[in-house]
Amino acid sequence: MAAADFFIDPKAGFYRFAPTVDNGATVFHDNPSFYQGVLRDLRATRESFQFVYFAGWWSDLRLPMGDPKASPKPPTLEAVLTALSAGLPVPPPPDQSSAPQDEHRYGPEICCMLWQHKAQSDYSAFPALVLPDSLFGAPILAAINTATVKTVNYLRGSNSGILDKRHAFAGSHHQKFIVMLTNEGLVAYLGSSDFNTDRLYPAGDPDAPSPPGKGSPLNDVNVRLTGPAAVDVLKTFVDRWRAHPDGANRPLRGETYKVLKTAVNQGAVQVQLSHTYAKSYPFAEAVRSAADTQVRICRTARRYVYFEDQYLIGTPDLWAALRDKLSSNVEFVVVGVMAPLNVVGDLPWLKERRSDFWLPLVSAYPGRVLLFEMLAPDGTDTGPGAYLHNKMTIADDAIVTMGSVNFSRRSHSHDSEVMATLGGPISPDSNVDIALQVRADRWARHLGVKPKEPPKIEDALAAFRRLPSTARIRPWIPVASAMTAVERAIYQRAYNAVLDPA
Predict the structure, then answer these.
(1) Which of 143, 157, 285, 390, by CA, is between 20 and 30 Å from 361?
(2) Mean pLDDT computed over 390-402
(3) CATH number of the structural domain spanning residue 332
(4) Residue 131: which H helix or E strand, with range?
């Protein structure tokens, strides 16, 4: 199948983006290199006509933009944004040798939209009222996002931050992206990483600005986009900004951006952006294009579909798509890699929820549904790097998704999400598709081998069926629930109403 076969019809639903071609795409498999890439582009965004926009679930300005152990230590996000807002020196007039040293032009426009949760209140004194951090945000997260928005609002120039609490009950704004107009053109970064210190520091590190949890630093994948796909990321920010009451009367410089034919760093990758928005938040109609994309991928694939996700608890539509594919194609294989149960502490009954989804498929199609927990490089399930936070789907070496969309109902229908679906060659002169390269890189990590020429899918699947001693994953087996009828009723109501609502 070609990449285009996996894209959804842009005319078949509300707020759908058409696929674009000739995009540049650079994939980052670790957070230090991702932040370093963002830093390089930010430093090329200094002019007053340029802009920097970011949306996040968590955005901590104290985050170093690179490896915190490097020498010299990379600057923090706050230091970078402050330097950008200071502007460049005013050039001296032709008839003078120099301009006044304290005279600067304004820098780029800096704007952000961050999730506001728990009404920015700290309920930690009332443990009975504290709900899982991933759904409502820890008290520390409320303070961090508030501080970031205040700082952006106080930066020199015309800059604005919005704390966005307009979302469905028990929902969140979970999008994670940054888009900027650099000296080389429009650039966007999208994936599973926030500006969050648990992406760089292990648990217990005294230098971490906020305390990381077990399995930190988290394992994420992000992509840098140039070309028309970056314009779609810009549109995502502008549309959400304009739909918010605080942004409706505050025009953005990026609204009038026009694609420059001379922009560099474009390529041959096809990209389609998709989203999740609950009805009325922020649009009158619900947006389900991310969910529709995932289902289409499962129904279109012929050889295999591969998932990475911290939860991997699924949705009814995805279950039906996988069941239909497994029953109609005896050679079709499903592979899933998830975060270990021991590090995911924000979702109660996670083992039961995973088992509810996967046990019927594993039982009905033995040997064709292969499930694993990811381990840290040291082989443990709680050590640094054990927490798989990536959200990814790969199918048939033809298509790969990256973004904030978890393998869950709330990410497919309830929270604000964004996802990129990518296919085609990694560059105009390459015969290797981006999905194949990403699959080879991810599977090399999990099998504990050095990345090399991408192995054939048959050989790769054989390695999953008989893991090598170097593997940094372990088989995960779903189990039948041992809950009583009363316990199961409580569990179902909790998930349907709060933990994983549709």
Answers:
(1) 390
(2) 98
(3) 3.30.870.10
(4) none
